Amino acid sequence: MLAPVPGGIGRYTEELTRELISTAPRGCEVEAIISAHPHDKDEELRQRLPGLADIHRLPLGRRELSRAWQYGIGIPPVGGMVHAPSLFAPLRQHDIREGDQIAVTIHDAVPWTHPETLTTHGAKWHRAMAKRARKYADAIVVPTHAVAQQLTEVLDIGSRIRVIGGAVGSGLVLPDDAEERARALNLPSEYVLSVGTLEPRKGVLPLITAFGGAGAPEIPLLLVGPAGWGDLDVASVRAEQGLDETRVRCLGVLDDADLAVVLDRATVFVYPSLAEGFGLPLLEAMHFGVPVVHSDDPALLEVASEAGVAVERAVAKDYPERLAQAIGDLLADDDLRERLAVAGRDRSRAFSWRDSAERVWALHADL
User: Fold this and answer.
1) HSE-up of 312 (CA within 13 Å, CB side)?
2) Boundaries of each Glycosyltransferase subfamily 4-like N-terminal domain copy (predicted)?
3) Which residues contact 152 (CB under 8 A, 6 or more apart)?
4) Distances in Å between the alpha carbon of 248 and those of 183, 285, 313?
5) Which of 234, 287, 289, 294 could be a cystine partner for 348, CB 3.0 to 4.6 Å?
6) pLDDT tens digits for 96-105?
7) Are the beta carbons of 12 and 6 closer than 8 angstroms?
8) What is the mean pLDDT of residues 177-188?
9) Is the dihedral of CA 169, 260, 143, 119 positive or negative?
10) Residue 38 and residue 83: Cα distance in Å, rounded?
11) What own/partner pairs with CB < 8 Å and gap ≥ 24 does 338-343 have?
12) pLDDT single digits (tens) 327-361
């Protein structure tokens, strides 16, 4: 079940599908079920995912399907082993004894733990689809044990939950023209980097505030990622803190090659998210040996596994100051940065998309 969307879930979907194709057991093929889109997109999809056996296009677009499936309307009679890399899934009653099965993925428990950080519609849709998953899914995949624990407290899903994480993408490789790309991006010699959607849940506001207060880091902050919801205007927040573009700069959305360059040259990486399910950007920074500061969200603590500096986020008014202190301490300690760089590289190697894909195949075999 493919639902190409921007951001983390889109990257997760593409990387997992690519490895599902390459690890398919004898006699198994990977076919894509997608929402309606222009026919010329099929060839683009086949180029991005070579080895895809077939593409099944549904008659409705993603938005229409999302509304319909939330209420159990217009669900096609999809058979076989269906694996949905999100909650966007054709959940219905089926007979697993005839070989039909469906697994869905819930990436985080944010709609229950931090609903205020989502749009009202987004939180409602995720909770509704999770209830359908509880009723009809044969397995529910989550990225961390932290999310598994959080979901078991709000959903009665018993032993159907499986933990299968993500990994650094295969395309995130330092390019041969790294120097030219760094110049084109006008990267400073030292900088603090944060990657993620620019929205309230990602902790962008307290991070920018940290650069405007007493004890703020002396080197600039670079932000990478698409604009999100919540009317988070970085320029306005920056101005409120008395900062200009030399102190806090947005680079927008970058391709993998540019992102690799920006990650590789960062002095410190900060992931201040208020609520997460996995935190792939944190793992990507560790992959490049960048020392990491992150919030004490349970999923991030699990993924980082003491290879980063955790910052308490419980008291909102103190969070910016705590972030500034942690970043400043790390910038002042060369030995600590080196230790975290080594530990981070080691930690990132514990995750691979091949392993994730093999676990998915094993999950469906068990069903």
Assistant:
1) 4
2) 6-165
3) 161
4) 18, 19, 21
5) 287
6) 667 789 999 9
7) no
8) 98
9) negative
10) 23
11) 340/291, 340/292, 340/307, 340/308, 340/309, 341/289, 341/290, 341/291, 342/289, 343/306, 343/307
12) 999 999 999 999 999 999 999 999 999 999 999 99
Look at the block and give the residue holding tokens 């229950």: 112
Q: Cα(254)–Cα(177) distance, rounded to whole angstroms? A: 15
Nearest-angstrom CA–CA distance, 354 and 22: 8
CB of 299 closer than 8 Å to CB of 144: yes
The DSSP element (H or E) to which 343 belongs, if any, is helix 334-348
3-class state of residue 104 by DSSP: strand
For residues 352 and 23, what is the distance between their CA atoms, to the nearest angstrom?
A: 13
| Count of CB atoms situated within 10 Å of the CB of 191 | 17
Query: What does pTM read for this prediction?
Result: 0.92
The whole-angstrom separation of Cα 226 and Cα 205 is 15
Distance CA 53, CA 72 (A): 28
Alpha-carbon distance values, 180 to 173, 175, 192, 257 (Å): 15, 10, 20, 11
**Regarding predicted confidence, which is higher, 125 or 37?**
125
Query: CA angle at residue 350 from 88 to 305, to 5 degrees?
Result: 90
Residues counted in the chain? 367
136 residue type, one letter: Y
What pLDDT shows up at residue 142? Answer: 98
| Range list of H helices, 137-221 | 145-152, 178-184, 204-210
Task: Compute φ and ψ for 33, nearest 5 degrees.
Answer: -110, 120
User: Pick from 144, 113, 111: which is nearest to 300 by CA?
Assistant: 144
